């Protein structure tokens, strides 16, 4: 029993290592886009990804043929969605300087844009993943597209103004 | 058509300059994942232990107090001397 157990553990460790080596880069890029951190200073994205990968590691035996990449990505998205409002800056922590191509977007806009375009998840599935109505996902997506495609220059104050109106 | 072109533009924007992967990503994930597994095992053990303790306590109580036996009557006076 003991040797078989040990060999199963070794197999699982090898599989997981291969999975991280293969998917880690792409997932880290996704996480960095979500947190809107600069590409070489992304502690929050690294932490988010490490926690999601740890969760996948813990559930590795129960995946039963399910794609581990899906599992990690789903965990990454929901964890980011749950923790996103912390980013509005607490009393103690100042808001970190945003970077990357999605710096002008709100966390939810970044999440929807990244899931829809970068990960290629359909609108209905994105809505189900985030627990939002599909119409809301479409509206957020369109707003995010408009913000991203706006030519650089005056967008920064315009984004602030546009976000101040509905609230 | 225009929407597809816009989407392609944003997609290209999202694909560029991926961040460098930290070398300790795998080790970190395994360390945290193993901790999650340890905690789960511990929680499961504690719950099983609690269930066992409850079962034992209930059995002992039932065997000592025998709640299914009709208790002796305390209202009727003893029937003596008739």
What's the quick description here?
The complex is a heterodimer of chains A (167) and B (82). With 167 residues, chain A is mainly α. Chain A has 7 helices and no strands.
Key terms for this structure?
A: 167 residues; mainly alpha; 0% strand; disordered C terminus; B: 82 residues
How does this model look, in words?
The complex is a heterodimer of chains A (167) and B (82). With 167 residues, chain A is mostly helical. In chain A, 67% of the residues lie in helices and 0% in strands. Chain B has helices at 2-15, 25-65. Helices cover 67% and strands 0% of the residues of chain B. The interface between A and B is medium-sized, with 36 and 28 residues.
* Distance between the first and last residues' Cα of chain A: 62 Å
List segments of chain A where confidence is low: pLDDT < 50 over at least 5 consecutive residues.
Answer: 157-167
Biggest beta sheet attributes of chain A: none
The secondary-structure element order of chain B is HH
Which sheet architecture does the biggest sheet of chain B show? Answer: none
Given as residue ranges, the uncertain stretches of chain B (5+ residues, pLDDT < 50) are none
Strand content of chain B: under 5%
The pLDDT mean of chain B sits at 89
* Overall geometric form of chain B: elongated
If helices are DSSP runs of H or I spanning 4 or more residues, what is the number of helices of chain A?
7
Category by helix and strand content of chain A: mainly alpha
Oligomer: heterodimer
Shape assignment of chain A: elongated
């Amino acid at each position: 029993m003991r040797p078989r157990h040990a060999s199963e553990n070794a197999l699982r460790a090898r599989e997981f290592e291969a999975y991280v080596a293969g998917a880690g880069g792409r997932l880290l890029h996704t996480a960095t886009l979500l947190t809107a951190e600069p590409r070489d200073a992304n502690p929050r994205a690294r932490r988010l990804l490490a926690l999601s990968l740890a969760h996948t590691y813990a559930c590795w035996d129960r995946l039963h043929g399910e794609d581990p990449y899906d599992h990690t990505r789903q965990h990454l998205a929901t964890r980011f969605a749950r923790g996103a409002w912390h980013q509005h800056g607490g009393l103690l922590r100042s808001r970190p300087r945003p970077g990357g191509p999605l710096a002008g977007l709100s966390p939810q806009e970044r999440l929807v844009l990244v899931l829809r375009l970068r990960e290629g998840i359909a609108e209905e599935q994105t809505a189900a993943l985030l627990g939002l109505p599909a119409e809301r996902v479409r509206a957020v997506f369109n707003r995010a597209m408009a913000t991203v495609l706006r030519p650089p220059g005056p967008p920064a104050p315009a984004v602030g103004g546009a976000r101040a109106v509905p609230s | 058509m225009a929407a597809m072109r816009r989407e392609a533009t944003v997609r290209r924007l999202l694909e560029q300059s991926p961040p460098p992967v930290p070398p300790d990503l795998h080790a970190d994930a395994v360390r945290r994942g193993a901790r999650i597994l340890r905690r789960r095992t511990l929680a499961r053990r504690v719950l099983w232990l609690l269930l066992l303790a409850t079962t034992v306590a209930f059995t002992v109580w039932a065997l000592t107090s025998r709640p299914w036996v009709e208790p002796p009557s305390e209202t009727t006076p003893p029937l003596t001397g008739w």
